[in-house]
Design brief:
There is one protein chain. 20% of the residues lie in helices and 25% in strands. Helix 5 (168-175) links the parallel strand 10 (155-160) and strand 11. By secondary structure, the chain is α/β, with parallel strands linked by helices. The chain has helices at 22-29, 58-61, 77-80, 83-86, 168-175, 201-211, 223-232, and strands at residues 2-7, 39-44, 47-51, 69-71, 94-97, 115-116, 126-129, 132-138, 146-152, 155-160, 181-185, 215-219, 240-242. It has a single domain, classed as Ribonuclease Z/Hydroxyacylglutathione hydrolase-like (Metallo-beta-lactamase, Chain A, 4-Layer Sandwich). It contains 7 helices and 13 strands. A 7-stranded mixed β-sheet has the order 7-8-9-10-11-12-13, with helices on one face.
Amino acid sequence: MRLTLLGTGDARQVPVYGCRCPACEAAHNDPSLRRRPCSALVELGDQRWLIDSGLPDLTERFPPHSLSGILQTHYHADHAQGLLHLRWGQGLVIPVHGPADPEGLSDLYKHPGILDFSQPFSAFETRVFGELSVTALPLLHSKPTLGYLLRGGGRCVAYLTDTVGLPDDTTAFLQRQALDVLILDCSMPPQPQAPRNHNDLSLALQIIDTLKPAKGVLSHVGHTLDAWWIGHAADLPEHVVAAKDGMGV
């Protein structure tokens, strides 16, 4: 199984429009430091699944019939805005598997076009697509949100954004798995107060310590965390890395 992180930023992305913090200045000067909307591509055998669709250029990135479908974590705009254009394609149907969310994003459910939203996941439901097995994991966020456990090709990978902490049943489920890689929401540096909607670094490292993956990858990163890392990159545990756009895991 091959998983590529297409985007690793939070809703504001990096650089943030109008910001002159050290992280945003660095990203202006070095394109490799930029972060686009959080998304990934999973490839195994004849399967090619996009995780989230916040990238605005999906129709340019993915020619017709090149995707098996989309695994949608939730319907906030930074994770779903690419669907608004993609839906008006012709001559194909793209299945979108995700949480049941009647409000969705804008009028996507009312005018789905070529997108098929007819099979939302239930909590902990497993679906098999060719050689790829996908299990939906409930997360803690301000909209109905799922993470995904991906199995195949001898690997077990958990993809968990957006979330602040984890529900107890999701934690218990993942503790029973031998995780090769945990890709986890980590949007902010350590905060003096409990974070809301997204993990800070302290909470993310607690989750990694609890689930004990062979490798932890911190994604959905905001510019304040990138700025903090400029002076603290060496503080991460040896088996934990900060995600970058285009990274393979």
